[in-house]
Amino acid sequence: MDAIPVTFTDIQVTALIELYARWLDAKDPHPILGDPWADRIVRSLDFDFSEFKKGFALSRYPVGERSRTFDRWVAEYLSENPDAIVLDLGCGLDSRVIRVDPAPGHLWYDVDLQGVIEIADRLYPERAEHCRIAASAVDPDWLARIPGDRPVVVVADGLLMFLAEDEVRRVFQQIIDHFPRGQFVFNAYAPLIKERGEKRPEPVFEKYGVQLKWTIENARGVEKLDDRLHYVDEHRMGEGGLLAHASLYYRLLVAVINVVPAWRNSGWILRYRF
Predict the structure, then answer these.
(1) pLDDT of residue 178
(2) What's the CA gap between 77 and 96, in Å, rounded?
(3) Count of alpha carbons within 13 Å of 97, Cβ hemisphere only?
(4) Under 8 Å CB-to-CB from 24, ≥6 apart: which residues?
């Protein structure tokens, strides 16, 4: 099969950055995530991933840790709720449904913009009870295609921070209105990260028009968006030994971040319920 040309702009480019990080992780002798699909997807795309090397070489560690955590949380929720639905918002070119491998009876919906979904459809095999939906997570119409009488676990991996706050609120409210109960698992950043990015913009973000928009002041800051949202827990970098084989430089960096309050509280991997 000929390589598929990729002409993403704006937020769609983050799907390629995340894929690049999973690819780097998969190549590591001691991967955190070990996504077996990352290499074959990268090799199937006509895109110069080398432009990510300077700014995102270390991204394999946080992306691997975050993805591993989300996979575990989703699997836990499905084991406790045999009829639960999964929504993977801003799924990108991720193979999460294959990694989690849900038992029969769990409907799984990957949601992303049309250009991303078209490529994912070409590169990943069809799977029972799995469907990809080409839509913006902010658009309310796509939810009408999904049963609303079952519990749901919603993954938003590397998505919400690129939406405006009113858009993030709309995403939460639409899903909470549609389902009887469920959980959200997602990552978020503090204003410090946004301010630093504005002062020293990442060249790749500048090139493709990617902007960090939504931030929170603390781990419970999401509750102000909707009073039906309730904090469950969070994962901090370096917990659970996932970085045991990371480079010495990165492990030292995480150690420094975790002892400086302003840095330690600048990003979160979160789980909320409603």
Answers:
(1) 98
(2) 15
(3) 26
(4) 57, 59, 60
